[in-house]
Amino acid sequence: MAGLGEIVGVLKAAGESTRLRLLALLADGDHSVKDLTEILDQSQPRVSRHLKLLADAGLVQRYAEGAWAYYRLSPAGQGADLARWLIARVDPAAPERRADRARQAAVRTQQQAEAAAYFAQVAQSWDLLKTLHVPEAAVEAAVLGTLAGRTVDLLIDLGTGTGRMLEVLAPAFRRGIGIDSSREMLAVARARLVEAGLNKAEVRLGDIGALDAGVGPADIVVLHQVLHYFDDPGRMLAQARRLLKPGGEIIIVDFAPHSLEFLRTEHAHRRLGLSREQMSGWAAAAGLHVRSVRDFPSDIEDGGLTVCLWYLGDRETMDAPDA
Ligand SMILES: C[S@@+](CC[C@H](N)C(=O)[O-])C[C@H]1O[C@@H](n2cnc3c(N)ncnc32)[C@H](O)[C@@H]1O
């Protein structure tokens, strides 16, 4: 329920053709102001003004990514309800809407091409690493299995990369947020989430080593192949712990200790795997408890890496013994 003035304000914000087009575009996924300017072929100040009016009325939300600003439809509230009601009534075959969608697709294709150029640079190391892992499918199935069919309200994937964990764990959350410091990885993640129709998940640019207190609180935090990029994984774990609701849980996938020094010198790893003892210590220091740990040895005989899956809980609310 809202006062008449408030409802009139929301209706006025939505009641203009460019703003209605913006709402329809954002129903298809988050966009930067730069993208929206290109799609609408209007000046950036003009598009920003329209977006500000929509945001002030609660129809959309703005979030900053460094020097860029992104917009998305508000996930809940009166503005969100009205936006979704309106968008559902826009004929997708209307010429203006078709043209907008065509330009939106072109902008996304361009972004994927840019991200592909980045991946072309790292493809060699990524492929090599994949051959050193156990089959990804086994680890992914085990990660999903950890949640044992539960569905939680909020899952946060730290160092989300291309958003793979958000896709894998989609059955287990009502809302998912992925955070990563690489624009290129996030461009791929955004495209993949749209392709998978996963509008309950979003990704944001951010440094997970300096997390914004405004993110969360989450039921589950995921750190999948991320901690070995940090000199001090314990500090990172303590930061992750601060994002949790009381009783929340953390899922970590990372390498067991190894001696492949080239991963450090050539592939930006800081730590050569993480041991069970280290993890127990970091967990305890962060007020967490290792509920279970499972190894996935490499199926390669020489030089393979073992992947570990740790499942951590809030120490206050856990009763299982250390693994
Ligand atoms: C090996 S990838 C793993 C991606 C994803 N979790 C997965 O398993 O597919 C590591 C990711 O961590 C991200 N990353 C590294 N340091 C970060 C930081 N300080 N803040 C945010 N993301 C970071 C990288 O950009 C990269 O996408």
UniProtKB/TrEMBL annotation:
The lineage of its organism: Bacteria, Pseudomonadati, Pseudomonadota, Alphaproteobacteria, Hyphomicrobiales. GO terms for molecular function: DNA-binding transcription factor activity; S-adenosylmethionine-dependent methyltransferase activity. InterPro entries: ArsR-like_HTH, HTH_ArsR_DNA-bd_dom, Methyltransf_11, SAM-dependent_MTases_sf, WH-like_DNA-bd_sf, WH_DNA-bd_sf. This is Metalloregulator ArsR/SmtB family transcription factor. The keyword Transferase applies. SMART domains: HTH_ARSR. The keyword Transferase applies. Pfam families: HTH_5, Methyltransf_11. It comes from Devosia oryzisoli. Residues 1-94 form the HTH arsR-type domain. Gene3D superfamilies: Vaccinia Virus protein VP39, Winged helix-like DNA-binding domain superfamily/Winged helix DNA-binding domain. Keywords: Transferase. It comes from the Bacteria.
